[in-house]
Known about the structure:
The chain is an alpha/beta fold. The protein has helices at about 1-10, 35-50, 70-75, 100-105, 130-140, 155-165, 165-180, 195-205, 225-235, 275-280, 295-300, 340-345; strands at about 20-25, 55-65, 90-95, 120, 150-155, 185-190, 210-215, 240-245, 255-265, 265-270.
Amino acid sequence: MAAEWICRALRDGALEGEHAPALTIKDFMASPLGFDVFTHFLSHHSTNISAGKSQSRGLVLVAFSRSPSFYLDLLSKRGLPIASSHHWIRILDYYTDPLGWKDQMGQCGSATKLSYDIASICGNVKDVDSLFSLIISLGRGFVVQGKVRFCVAIDSVNEMLRYASLSSVAGLISSLRCCADQISSIFWFCHADLCEERATSTLEYMSSMVASIEPLIQFANGQRSNSENLSLLDQNFTRGKLHLRCKRRNGRVRVMFEEIHLGQSGINFTSTSFEDGVINQGLVPKVQFSLQLSEKELKDRANVVLPFEHQGNGKPVQIYDGRKSLTDSKYEVAPIPNGISDIDKESGKGEIIYFRDSEDEMPDSDEDPDDDLDI
């Protein structure tokens, strides 16, 4: 379910007047399956683009950790038409010459020796402004007529952070997201263990979706010396848990989980047994007291007599109506005076009869008692 949610969000793209959806894919040393998850979404989204089922009409891939030929072989194995790939994919090759040494020798901008001429050697990775201009210019090449959007994929933010500052990388991603009239979606991959905590926090803050690959089997540090535990930890290289956090347009956050299994045919996603109620409990802040009532506490609360409740104790409940006493039955309701007309009797209207306690009590008067005051 989580993987389908991501694929659908990348396929549908951006709405009018909103930023492009952004996905952060991160993993850890205990579960290094992040790049396989990245290539899975890259292949799936490329299939939708080539089939014309996506808002994107092209894909600009910024390659830092793998060569362009690796990605062409990957897409070819997934059954994509590589012969016509130049119509829907462009690759910026920062893998071959990340520091622009060939640029200093006058060889920058030459096409990589690939069969279909879809990649270009680029450098220097420190020049983030130049990278932004290259992405936009290559994306505009997909435009045939009318407004056409394209998708941007970055295979390693860690390589960018090795040479460029966090502020410049964050500025690049923010600028790409703001180009929603041209860019439909953007996603990237990073190793969380190789980044500073503030870097991963910044990337997650700028994302509308965060996919974390966590180990399926975890042990305390003191148990890792056990050979049996080590053999179980080896399973984390082929199995893991996908933790997806999505920011909805109404401001709410949705959390989903899926298990990951890496096989020879690729990555498989399996829904876990987490229910919505269990998932939502993860959003409740941790406090020092229990927010739930035990069975005994629920029973005690039900037995509490509230002050406005009349308890009959097995007898008919009598509510005091202000005219007679519940304990003294000799007081009866005074009969209605004869002066009341038949209409008042039929209508059920009553009157208030006031008796003075003593003769010293002054009768009610319509005169203002403060009339003589000079105010």
